[in-house]
Design goal:
The chain has 422 residues and is of the alpha/beta class. It has 3 domains: 4-220, 3-Layer(aba) Sandwich (Rossmann fold); 233-326, Tyrosyl-Transfer RNA Synthetase (Orthogonal Bundle); 343-421, Structural Genomics Hypothetical 15.5 Kd Protein In mrcA-pckA Intergenic Region, Chain A (Roll), CATH 3.10.290. It is built from 19 helices and 13 strands. It has helices at 4-10, 20-29, 50-61, 91-106, 123-126, 131-138, 144-149, 151-158, 165-168, 170-185, 197-211, 248-256, 260-270, 275-287, 293-307, 309-322, 333-342, 354-360, 367-375; strands at residues 16-17, 33-38, 65-70, 118-120, 187-193, 216-220, 233-234, 237-238, 345-349, 379-381, 384-385, 405-410, 414-421. The strands form 3 sheets. Strands 1-6-5-2-3-4 form a 6-stranded mixed beta sheet, with helices on both faces. The protein has a 5-stranded mixed beta sheet with strand order 9-13-12-10-11, sandwiched between helices. A two-stranded antiparallel sheet has the order 7-8. It is elongated.
Amino acid sequence: MHSVLDELAWRGLVVQTTGREALGSALADGPISLYCGFDPTAASLHVGHLTQVLTMRRLQLAGHHPYALVGGATGLIGDPRMSGERVLNDAEIVSTWVESLRGQISRFLDLEGEHAVTMVNNLDWIGQMSALDFLRDMGKHFRMGTMLAKDTVARRLQSDEGISYTEFSYQVLQGIDYLELHRRHGVSLQYGGNDQWGNLVAGVDLVHKVEGHDVHALTTPLVTKADGSKFGKSEGGAVWLDAELTSPYAFHQFWLNAADADVVNYLKYFTFRTQEEIAELEHATEAASHERAAQKLLADEITTMVHGHQATTQAKAAAAVLFGRGDVRELDEATISAITRELPNVEVSTTTPLVDAFVEVGIAASKGAARRDAAGGGLSVNGEKLTADDLGRETGDFEQLPGRHLLLRRGRKNAAMVRLLG
C-alpha cells in the first residue's frame, strides 16, 4: 500500500470524497487532524459502528490525530431517519449514554502518545449557543434549496408524517461541529457512513464560507449482507458491543455465521489482516468452504478485540457444549446465561423429580419415553449419563452449574436448560 488512503480504498472503505487527489495529498503531507461523530441514541454502539471506529484506528496507526466526537447535543435531537420522527430522549439519559459510548470507543484507540485520540462532546459548544447566535451566525450560511435536496429530508417531506424543524436542523448542527473542531484543533477531515454525505458536505461548505479554508470529507460504505439485508441484525435486534446487551457467545456466533459471499469483505472492514493474509483466506473459502476457516478467524479476532481473549475462549467452549462437545462445567455464569437464551429453558423447584423436568422442558415426550431413553444411555445432566433410576431423584440432588442451572440433554442434538428455584 502506498498510503493510508490506498489501504482504505483496497479495503472498500472509501465511497465518496470531496476530492480524492487533494485528500490523498493532505494525508501524505500530514499528519492531519480528523474526526468522526457518534450520536448517543442508545446505551451502546452496535457492530455497524465498528466500521467507523476501526477506520479511526487505521488513520491513527498511520500517524494522524483522531478526534472522536460523541454528540451530547446532537444526540438530544437525532439525525433524521428515512421514516418517522425519532423519540427525543431525556437529557440525563443522553448524558449517561455519552459516557458509555466514550468508554467503548476508547477501548479501540491509543489514549496516550503522539497520536492519542481526543474525546470531544459537541454539547460543549452547541450548548453555549443562543437561538439568536444559531440563526444569525450560522443559519445565514445554509441555503434552503440545498438542505431540502438532501435525500432523507426530501423523502420525509413527501411522506405523511413530514419532518419537524428539530430534525431538519440537524445538518446545521453537524456543520457547526466541523467548524468548531477546525477552529479549535485544526481538524481538516471528517468522515462517516455514506448516508452522512450531505451532512459532511454541509460542514465542508461552512468551514469554507466562514474561515475561507478548504477541508475534506470521506464516506465509508453502509455495510449490508450480500443478499441486501441489514448488517448487524439478528432475530433479537441489533448486535451490540456491550456484553450485557449481546453476549460474547451470541457476538461470536454472529460473525461465525457470516456467509461466504460476505466474509472476505468483513475481514477487510473489521480486521487488521494484510492483503496477502486475506487473499489466502479467500482462497481457502473457495477451496474448502465447509471448513469455514475465514469465518472462524473473523469471529475469533473480532470477539477478542471487543470482549477479550477469555470471552472468546468461553464463547467457543459454549458452542462446543451446545453441539454436544466440551464440558459445560467449565463455563462461567455469564456464558451459561448466554447459552440458556439459545436453548429451550424452564424454571423448576429443587424438589421436582428429574423425569418431570425432562418432560416439562420438552426434551422427552413423556415420563415413559424419558425412562426408555435413560435405559438406553441417551440422557444426561451436565454431561453425566443417567440411568432410569436417576430420573426418580430430585433436581436439587444434582451438582448445579453457575446460576443454579442444569443442562439436560437427549443425545447430542437435543439440549435444554433448567434453572432451579427454592
